Amino acid sequence: MRKFVLTGLVAATAAFALVAYAQDIPETAVIDGCADAKAPVEFPHKAHLEVTDCTTCHHKSEGLTLETAASMEVKTCVSCHGEPEDAETPLCSAKSLKKNPYHITCVGCHKTMKKEAKAAGTEFGAPTKCTACHPKAE
Ligand code: HEC
Ligand code: HEC
Ligand code: HEC
Ligand code: HEC
Predict the structure, then answer these.
(1) CA nearest neighbour of 81 among 110, 102, 111, 112
(2) What CATH architecture applies to the domain 8-133?
(3) pLDDT, tens digit, 9 for 90 and up, residues 97-113
(4) Residues within a 6 A CB radius of ligand 3
């Protein structure tokens, strides 16, 4: 099952440029492995590669970089956070901003950076509101 959508010429060109590192680093991803109450989330993966290290998100892939990606297996978040074996591991079907692993990682960073931008008097556009990530059904 492939969850990633590669669209358009731009994506195709950029994906080609990434082939030197690894064929499977997605340009964009639709995160839908846990979708139930809320709409799937469109995630601009490539834009995030300049923002932080791979391991900020892929926290179980020690040593993952653009250079090592080709020789490493990168598991999806849902493969571990969908039905975790122990109660300590955050569940990706959780609604809470404090308990859902995506909310902790994604919303956590967006909120921190938004606060920093505000303190510095600059604009910051990453989504922190529910509907910005989970669009309302038409
Ligand atoms: C930065 C993006 C982002 C924001 C903001 C965000 N979420 Fe999520 N949320 C996600 C992602 C990614 C998932 C995992 C989706 C999946 O796998 O289907 C998720 C999963 C969920 C789930 C479990 C899956 C489901 O469909 O039932 C619920 C419920 C949810 N979010 C509710 C909320 C609520 C309520 C808010 C606002 C308080 C919110 N989210 C804000 C990204 C976000
Ligand atoms: C901001 C968070 C974040 C960063 C930073 C990030 N990724 Fe990802 N990556 C994701 C998410 C979310 C997915 C979608 C897969 C999923 O739902 O678990 C993904 C998917 C992938 C996949 C496909 C996995 C599969 O099984 O299909 C690869 C390969 C990958 N990332 C490599 C990288 C590499 C290499 C870097 C650093 C250069 C990186 N990622 C940086 C969040 C991130
Ligand atoms: C190989 C399994 C595995 C994968 C893949 C994985 N996780 Fe985790 N995650 C865990 C386990 C187990 C824990 C419990 C704490 C620990 O062992 O680090 C955890 C904990 C977390 C936490 C809580 C950390 C804290 O300090 O409270 C967050 C947030 C998180 N994961 C997000 C993600 C995201 C986002 C992805 C995908 C980009 C992901 N995880 C991929 C297994 C995984
Ligand atoms: C380490 C910090 C960090 C993490 C972790 C992170 N983001 Fe972001 N995100 C950013 C920054 C920085 C931007 C760009 C903001 C801007 O354009 O001003 C951004 C932008 C976005 C955008 C808007 C893109 C656009 O075109 O406007 C979406 C959607 C998004 N992130 C979703 C996610 C999701 C989903 C996750 C978790 C899988 C995630 N982010 C994790 C820092 C982060």
Answers:
(1) 102
(2) Alpha-Beta Complex (3.90)
(3) 999 999 999 999 999 99
(4) 57-60, 75, 77, 79-81, 88-90, 101-102, 104-105
